[in-house]
Each structure stands twice: as structure tokens, then as C-alpha cells.
Specification:
The chain has one domain. It is elongated. 82% of the residues lie in helices and 0% in strands. Helix 1 packs antiparallel against helix 4 and helix 2 packs antiparallel against helix 3. With 80 residues, the protein is an all-alpha fold.
Length: 80
């Protein structure tokens, strides 16, 4: 990865530290709990829609941790 990739990851981490992003993650966690309620699934179509929603929520909620890991891997790769 180039320095451009490292800058991208650092910028992403800075974004995840903003109050707006922290609020978004909190809202998504609440939404995740309500979506995950089995009573909301009335058909196979509902199941697939909910599965897609949960994947997107999971991606955003875990973005900070995934970015930290990617940055660590990048920096470890550059130090060898």
C-alpha cells in the first residue's frame, strides 16, 4: 500500500472520532436490535431484506475497528 492508502485510513479514523459518527453508530446499534427481532420476519423476502440491512449496519458499526486493523497491517508491512 502507498502513503495515499495510509492517509485514507488515517482520514477514516479521524471521521470515526467525530461526534456525528459516534451518534450514527449509536443509532445503528439501536436499529440493529429492533431489526433483529424475529417477530419482524413474516416471509422469506423479509428475511433477505433484514439480512442485507444487518450487513450494512455491521459494516458501519465495525468500521473503526476494521480501519485500525488495516492501518496496523499497513504499518507492520512498511516496517519490515
Amino acid at each position: 500500500m502507498s502513503k495515499t492508502d495510509e492517509k485514507f485510513l488515517v482520514d477514516r479514523l479521524e471521521m470515526t472520532e467525530t461526534e456525528g459518527f459516534i451518534d450514527l453508530v449509536a443509532d445503528l446499534k439501536n436499529l440493529e436490535e429492533s431489526i433483529g427481532n424475529l417477530n419482524n420476519i413474516n416471509s422469506e423476502q423479509d428475511l433477505w431484506v433484514i439480512k442485507g440491512q444487518l450487513r450494512i449496519i455491521n459494516f458501519i458499526v465495525n468500521l473503526e475497528n476494521a480501519t485500525h486493523l488495516a492501518l496496523e497491517e499497513l504499518q507492520d508491512g512498511n516496517s519490515t
